[in-house]
């Protein structure tokens, strides 16, 4: 079996990020401390970049092939397995015995007969209409992943031969079962918006003409009536693009724009905010303010200075992680869009660096109180040194730190069987000891957050990765998401 060369001294190919090559299955996992709750039943799955072949040219953490790590839990017992996402691109590379694409740090190869970019499906996971889908951050055709064995079933085109694909972070409305998504690209329309219905079929797909150029899109948010799209002032210099060169710039003098589009509509109402970049939203909802005006509220992680090497960045005494060009200094933030006045107000909600936030998805699109936010360490690369439970009502955090030398990942809210409300749930993530590669699944009580109630040993190294999902056993028999009644 070929292994990935890590001699290029790329920090994202070493230590906690070093890829694994073996695909294993292990049953009846050892519980190191505590006990797996009896009322937790389902599968925790997490995606991430795991290059199968040595990179062609410079490697960026976002380039690697998708690998899914899954822990199935039932009756107080757990089993683990990991599988590559067998994309058509990975299959072609394995047949060729060499990489066929360069990564995003190399010039875009428009002469590549297979297309300039490799859809790795390495970024995100969503369970919708009875299917688990692996998704790619640059917009691509999703891959269906079979449960429980995590084998790749093939491309998902939503019953309508939808070849434009979808980006990472579609949003499933637990009340209607619909999934809202966006697609973006280098050519007009630079942003499109769509809805997949509860049966998994494409029901709505429209170009968003008011986004004037290619943008680095990553996330959206939903409320009961609207989807929130973004037009953020970090993008490739349009003048350089005209001469075939790509130079990413952050335009501090331009506003960040958040656009409300009616769920099944096409007309966007844009609101202007201070320049920033946003990788991840947490939630959004509609409410009425004290003056009786309707507002759309969105909370998420805001980065004021998103590029490394920008001379306008503030001088800091502490280190801020980077991923290639990207500078990760995110803080919790709230944006309020006033539907009566057309004005947006915003405020920072905390002083802790946090990213990859998650909340109880049963409240997606309506007001929620808590989120679980991995705490970003002051380190040169992205390391989550703890997990912070944020209470939006009180503005407080409870922080659980990992032991020295350990880090964790995105933490998913997994409702207890018979759960009756927000936070009547467990919170799950993978944790990793960097020096030894020892990996564990950590389980917390959402309500009594603090020390984990169980640490489950994974008999393989689980490298640092990206986004995770919880597929409750009950959902595999239902076409809708679960909802708090
Ligand atoms: Fe993401």
Model description:
With 485 residues, the protein is mainly β. The chain has one domain. It is built from two helices and 34 strands. Strands 2, 29, 30, 31, 32 and 33 form a six-stranded antiparallel β-sheet that branches. It binds fe (ii) ion. Fe (ii) ion binds at residues 123, 168-169, 218, 279-280, 467.
Features of the shown structure:
disordered N terminus; binds fe (ii) ion; 3% helix; 34 strands; 2 helices; 38% strand; single chain; mainly beta; 485 residues; five-stranded antiparallel beta sheet
Bound molecules: fe (ii) ion
| Average pLDDT reading | 95
User: Helix content range of the residues, please?
Assistant: under 10%
**How many H/I helical runs?**
2
**Backbone CA Rg:** 21 Å
Please indicate the percent range of residues in DSSP E strands (runs of 2 or more): 35-45%
User: Could you give a short account of the major beta sheet?
Assistant: 6 strands, antiparallel
Uncertain segments of ≥5 residues (pLDDT<50)?
1-7, 478-485
Label the overall shape: globular
**Terminal-residue CA separation:** 50 Å
What is the count of structural domains? 1
Global structural class:
mainly beta
List how many beta strands DSSP finds.
34
